Amino acid sequence: MNILKTKRLSIRKPCDEDVDAIYEIQNTPYVLRYNGLKEMNKKQIHTMLMDKDEPVYMLEMVNSQKVIGAIFVERDSLRYGAKACSLSCYLEEAYAHQGYMKEAMTALIHHIFYDDEMDVISVRVLCENTASMHLVEALGFQKEGVIRRCLKGYQGIVYDDMIYSILKEEYVSG
Fold first, then answer.
1. Which of 11, 20, 24, 136 is deepest in the core (most CB within 10 A)?
2. Which residue stretches of 15-99 are H helix?
3. What's the first-to-final CA gap in the chain, in angstroms?
4. How is the chain split into domains, by residue range?
5. Is the pTM of this model over 0.85?
6. H-helix or E-strand containing 149?
7. Transmembrane segments in this chain: where (predicted)?
């Protein structure tokens, strides 16, 4: 995939110039709180963005070319032998709750099912992150269950983790 376009976003692979923007977004308390991440330096961010085995996609505003977030595609570690991947994502706080992530995820999910030929996509959401739960449910993901006390995250808080998935045959492109 080179670039996916939506009405407001370009969804593209990262480049060296994205490190500063992602460094600033990812290391904020807003993003760290619900993503199970630790603060990273710019070298660590660069390594993460350029990982060829687990692609990262930049969410860039079409009108300004400003990077406002990222979506990460990883191997689904809970499934074995299935054509499955897991998504995680975050946005800069100023762009949250405006439909940007739904717009981006809709385009990327379609790409993953029909171009990458995956059979199932999963998403893990920390139980306190109600906005992300609503997002994935609106995208058609089904709740599979909860892994209790799954992740020690930001400020040492231990979170329960909700598991969601959507099967290719359940997906209805929008």
1. 136
2. 19-26, 29-35, 42-49
3. 20
4. 3-121
5. yes
6. strand 142-152
7. none
Residue 39 one-letter amino acid: E
* Cβ atoms within 10 Å of 115's Cβ, excluding its own: 10
3-state secondary structure of 24: helix
Place of tokens 């969804």: 11
- Do strands 67-75 and 120-126 pair parallel, antiparallel, or not at all (unpaired)? unpaired
Q: Which residues pair with 151 in a beta bridge?
A: 159
Is 109 strand, coil or helix? helix
At position 68, the amino acid (one-letter code) is I
Q: Are 121 and 82 in contact (CB under 8 A)?
A: no
Strands, E assignment, 8-141: 9-12, 56-61, 67-75, 84-91, 120-126
Beta pairing partners, 91: 69
Name the token pair of 122.
């999963």
Q: What class is the 3-121 domain?
A: alpha beta
pLDDT in tens, 28-38: 999 998 887 88
Q: Is the pLDDT of residue 2 over 80?
A: no
User: What pLDDT score was predicted for residue 156?
Assistant: 82
C-alpha triplet 93, 26, 109: angle, nearest 5°: 80
